[in-house]
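F.,

This is the one I mentioned.
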């Protein structure tokens, strides 16, 4: 699909029938946040179907395939990764909501709170098109910055400080796991069961 030559879809084809899909950007943001969360995969599938389909189709495998296609705006993508860079996400809709809101308002004059609906594919294109002078783009740059041996000591310190300052908080389950590993290491415990 090409956003320049084709209308953004409001349905997906499942078993030869056009099935309505929740195309508003808020649904896909909820989906991405849910996929990044700690729910078991089986629950994620059920929740994803509920997010995207007003009535969940009987052909579950095809419905999942089509919602993933829709989420990716007709392109290859992996949900819940938040634009990964250097092994970690470079944005989080939950954590960066204020920066993203401000960027859309500043650059496009779009109040994401007031807009009745905005197609996910259009939102995604606008998000990817944010200019470098928006704070969220600057922050994503810090998060994705690779610290290399060629950098000066001052540059390395600066980027490490920025990465720490703008780090996306780990989910509760990850924090608990890291805390348990840290405690085991400090007290001479066995970490093999924690890894």
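My design for it:
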């Amino acid at each position: 699909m090409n956003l320049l030559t084709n209308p953004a879809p409001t349905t997906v084809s499942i078993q030869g029938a056009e099935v309505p899909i929740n195309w508003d950007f808020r649904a896909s943001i909820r989906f991405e946040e849910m996929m990044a969360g700690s729910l078991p995969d089986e629950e994620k599938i059920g929740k994803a179907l509920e997010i995207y389909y007003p009535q969940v189709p009987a052909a579950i495998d095809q419905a999942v395939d089509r919602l993933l296609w829709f989420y990716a705006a007709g392109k290859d993508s992996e949900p819940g990764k938040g634009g990964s860079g250097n092994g970690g996400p470079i944005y989080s809709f939950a954590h960066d909501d204020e920066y993203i809101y401000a960027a859309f308002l500043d650059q496009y004059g779009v109040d994401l709170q007031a807009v009745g609906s905005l197609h996910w594919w259009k939102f995604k294109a606008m998000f990817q098109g944010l200019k470098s002078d928006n704070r969220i783009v600057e922050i994503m740059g810090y998060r994705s910055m690779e610290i290399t041996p060629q950098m000066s000591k001052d540059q390395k310190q600066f980027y490490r400080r920025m990465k720490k300052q703008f780090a996306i908080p780990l989910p509760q389950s990850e924090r608990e796991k890291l805390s348990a590993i840290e405690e085991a290491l400090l007290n001479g415990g066995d970490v093999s069961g924690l890894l």
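Residues 172-186 form the longest helix (15 residues).

Talk soon.
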